Amino acid sequence: MNQATLILVVLALVLLIYAWRRGDGSHRRGVSMGWRTLKRTLPLLLVAFIIAGYVNVLAPQDLVSSWIGPGSGWRGLLVGTGAGMLLPGGPYVVFPLIAALYQAGAGLGPTLAIITSWSTLALLTVSFELPFLGWRFTAIRLGICLIIPPLVGLVGTLLFGG
């Protein structure tokens, strides 16, 4: 059991005890809601982990290293930014894929650019943002956020190497 799992187990136990002490059945409702969420997302998680496994096994390490490896420079940061924009899904889908690329030889800077780009520029979110906030807001946000992922990758590379 790793540290993150241990922290989550302790947090779940603290919340369970708190809910149980309320005496209103919220401990049962919480477990029930968690179970429903697990049933809904488990197929997606399984598929995401299988895809991440295939990316890890099938991604040619020399190709990953040349495009987004530690020595890829600005090209790696820009490719990472573009790749992050195209990644579909939530964190339970995206992080296994990014971890597989990192293990296949992606550099720290491009990996940081991928994660930052996914969280700030994911094109999938534009389809939700446009109807609610309009073209002007979306264009301004995307324009401002476009410089952030390469900058994060560059700072990460300068501070921590690789």
Describe the structure.
This protein is mostly helical and 162 residues long. Helix content is 85%, strand content 0%. The protein has helices spanning 3-22, 26-58, 61-68, 73-86, 91-103, 108-121, 123-145, 148-160. 24% of the residues are buried.
Estimated share of beta-strand residues: under 5%
Round the Cα radius of gyration to an integer and report it.
19 Å
Low-confidence stretches: none
Per DSSP, the total helix count is: 8
Total domains: 2
The oligomeric state of the chains shown is single chain
Globular, elongated, flat, extended or rod-shaped: what is the shape?
globular
- Helix/strand structural class: mainly alpha
One letter per element, helices H and strands E, the order comes to HHHHHHHH
User: What is the typical, i.e. mean, pLDDT?
Assistant: 92
- The termini sit apart by 28 Å
Major beta-sheet overview: none
Helix percent reads over 70%
Please report the total strand number as a whole number. 0
Layout of strands and helices, then pairs:
Layout: H1 3-22, H2 26-58, H3 61-68, H4 73-86, H5 91-103, H6 108-121, H7 123-145, H8 148-160
Helix pairs in contact: 1-2, 2-5, 4-6, 4-8, 5-6, 6-7, 6-8
